[in-house]
């Protein structure tokens, strides 16, 4: 049956920026529709695209449905989906996201931003950085004072850098063990986040302090070249099992559901911070090797760069160890 024999009900719903006027038009339109429905007739509301995407219809639909009338939505094709089809391409693939943004609302949000709150947030960040720097400096002073009196404690001064990638795993295991001992599985939900935050607040200043100590020790030739080379290789080798474990965690994250992305990001972040920490430690030790004329400046720059490259850093540490050993052996033979 064609539409020519059907009665047409004209509704006045103009586009307007006045919410009250729009709402009144929706109510009036719904009233007209309900009057026809009361006559025992069916009503079809035609609209462009899909009635569930930015459609006038949905506002009228809610009023009629709330009044107790039977309603049904028949899906259509939105303009942006139709445009993609005409282009013979998709709008989003796999993990890509589709977002809509209300430009007017964004401007309103920007206009209503409290500059005082922004300044307070900035001040909070600056204060946190100052506290971080202060704690790191304090740790470095204590550690360097001990190292200067007892140079043999060199490796112990670098323990924060050495254990860094294992510290988070250790905290998680301890929290899990605590839950097993107490028999309260919910305790891990409280202990683990708190422990991780405390660890974050402590170990990062301690790692920075270790790097500062190494630079200071390199400046005054406090540590022999052999120990510098041994320390670089030791740190890199000890970190290998942690990298393997993080790779396994990341692989499991790929197989997991929503939490998988968090696991992957955590593993990647810890690996990244570990490489940065060990790389900076290596740079400090290389500074000492250069000052003792064990390697030249350009060799130091090369190995310094390689120490920040994932996996390559281990091979570079081994190569540097070989070079230093040959240099020291050559000097001993000359003597």
Structure overview:
This protein has 335 residues and is mainly alpha-helical. The protein contains 12 helices and no strands. The chain has helices at residues 19-38, 56-66, 79-86, 103-111, 115-149, 154-157, 159-182, 187-219, 225-255, 258-291, 297-306, 312-334. α7 (159-182) packs antiparallel against α8 and α9 runs antiparallel to α12. 21% of the residues are buried. The mean pLDDT is 78.
Summarize the structure.
The protein is mainly alpha-helical. It is built from twelve helices and no strands.
Please tag this protein with its features.
mainly alpha, 0% strand, elongated
Q: N-to-C terminal Cα separation, in Å?
A: 109 Å
Elements, N to C (H/E): HHHHHHHHHHHH
What would the average pLDDT be, to the nearest integer?
Answer: 78
Radius of gyration: 33 Å
Structural class given helices, strands, pairing? Answer: mainly alpha
Tally of contiguous helical segments: 12
**Form type:** elongated
Oligomer: single chain
Query: Portion of residues in helices?
Result: over 70%
Biggest β-sheet strands, sense, barrel: none
The low-confidence parts are none
Total beta strand runs: 0
Strand content: under 5%
């Amino acid at each position: 049956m064609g539409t020519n024999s059907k009665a047409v009900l004209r509704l006045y719903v103009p586009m307007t920026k006045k919410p009250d006027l729009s709402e009144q038009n929706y109510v009036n339109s719904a009233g007209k529709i309900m009057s026809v429905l009361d006559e025992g007739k069916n009503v079809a509301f035609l609209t462009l695209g899909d009635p569930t995407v930015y459609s006038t219809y949905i506002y009228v639909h809610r009023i009629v449905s709330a009044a107790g009338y039977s309603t049904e939505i028949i899906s259509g094709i939105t303009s942006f989906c139709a445009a993609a089809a005409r282009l013979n391409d998709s709008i989003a693939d796999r993990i890509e996201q589709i977002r809509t943004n209300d430009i007017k609302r964004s401007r309103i949000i920007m206009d209503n931003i409290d500059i005082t709150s922004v300044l307070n947030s900035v001040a909070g960040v600056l204060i946190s950085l100052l506290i971080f720097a202060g704690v790191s400096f304090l740790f470095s002073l204590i550690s360097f004072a001990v190292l200067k009196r007892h140079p043999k404690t060199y490796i112990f001064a670098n323990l924060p850098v050495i254990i860094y990638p294992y510290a988070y795993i250790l905290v998680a295991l301890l929290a899990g063990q605590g839950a097993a001992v107490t028999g309260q599985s919910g305790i891990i939900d409280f202990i683990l986040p708190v422990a991780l935050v405390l660890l974050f607040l402590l170990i990062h200043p301690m790692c920075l302090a270790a790097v500062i100590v190494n630079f200071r020790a390199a400046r005054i030739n406090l540590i022999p070249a052999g120990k510098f080379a041994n320390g670089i290789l030791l740190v890199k080798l000890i970190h290998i099992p942690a990298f393997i474990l993080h790779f396994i965690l990341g692989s499991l994250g790929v197989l997991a559901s929503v939490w998988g992305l968090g696991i992957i990001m955590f593993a990647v972040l810890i690996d990244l911070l570990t490489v940065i920490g060990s790389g900076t430690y290596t740079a400090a030790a290389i500074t000492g090797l250069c000052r003792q004329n064990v390697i030249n400046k350009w060799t130091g720059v090369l190995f310094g760069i390689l120490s920040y490259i994932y996996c390559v850093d281990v091979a570079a540490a081994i190569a540097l160890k070989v070079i230093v050993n040959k240099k020291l052996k050559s000097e001993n033979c000359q003597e």
